[in-house]
Amino acid sequence: MAAASPASSAPLVLLESLIAGTSHREGLKPYEPNLQVGQALTLVREADSTYDDWAVRVYTADADAMWLGYLPEGRNETIARLLDAGYKLGGRLTHKAWEDEWLYLEMEVLLMAE
Description:
The structure is a single chain. By secondary structure, the protein is mainly beta. It has one domain (12-111): Alpha-Beta Plaits (2-Layer Sandwich), CATH 3.30.70.2330. The chain has helices spanning 28-31, 77-84, and strands spanning 12-18, 40-45, 56-60, 67-70, 89-99, 102-111. Strands 1-6-5-2-3-4 form a 6-stranded antiparallel β-sheet, covered by helices on one side. The model has no long low-confidence stretch (mean pLDDT 92). Keywords: Hydrolase, Metal-binding. It holds the Pfam family HIRAN. InterPro entries: HIRAN (IPR014905). Residues 12-111 form the HIRAN domain. This is HIRAN domain-containing protein.
């Protein structure tokens, strides 16, 4: 019997993570109503970060991209290495909630189908 092949059009979830640093993003509080669970996110490598060798920024994937925060330090090395190697990665917002003055955002990091 032949092994089942993966669906070539479906992205592979590589990581489920919160988005760190949302309380430091200027303009995020008034922008928050525009964020919708399920929306696409973009990952951008910040190789010159002075704070984290594996820094990966998270943005919305629309024309006026909003910088939401970072993948958390300690959970970002593999994703940073994949971005550095040229893999096509994306993201999807999976949860949002206010906890007092903190906007709690969760996402999936996706390996996009070719």
